[in-house]
Automatic annotation (TrEMBL):
It comes from Maribacter aurantiacus. It comes from the Bacteria. Residues 33-46 have a biased composition (Polar residues). One of its GO terms (biological process) is fatty acid biosynthetic process. This is Biotin carboxyl carrier protein of acetyl-CoA carboxylase. The keyword Amino-acid biosynthesis does not apply. The keyword Lipid biosynthesis applies.
Amino acid sequence: MDIKEIQSLIKFVAKSGASEVKLETDDIKITIRTGSPGSGETTFVQSIPMAQPPVAPTAAQQTQPEAPTTPATPAKETEKKEDDSKYITIKSPIIGTFYRKPSPDKPAFVEVGDKIAAGDVLCVIEAMKLFNDIESEVAGTIVKVLVDDSSPVEFDQPLFLVDPS
C-alpha cells in the first residue's frame, strides 16, 4: 500500500462519518480515527509494517561487533583442547537430568581431585522418573566436572574430565 492509497483511505473515512477504522493486510496495519462526525478532523494513528525488517539490521549490527572476538575464541578452544587432550572425557550415555549427589542431604559422588576406579559411580542421571547410576569406565583422577548439578544433559554430552595417569 503506497502513500496515495493511504491518503485516499483517510479522506474516505473522514467523509463516511465513521469514528474509527482499522485495516490490516500482510504488509501493513493502519488505524484511522476521526473527530466527531461533521467536524472534518481526522487523525491518522498508526501505520506499522507487519514484517519486521528493522529487527534484522539490528541483529546484523550486533553480530558484526562479535565477529572480531570470534577469531580469538577458536584460539582459546585450541589451547583448551591441547590441555584437555591428555584427559579422558566421560560422556552422558542418556538424556536426562544430571545429579552429583544420590540425594539432596548426601555428599557428592565425586569431587575434583578424587581418585576413581573403573566401576565407581560418578553421578546419577534421572530419565523418565528413573535414576540411573553413571559408572566410570576408566580409573584415574577427576580433573573437572563439566555440568552443574540438577542440569539437563543430552546424549553424549561431556560430564567429567579424568586424568588416567
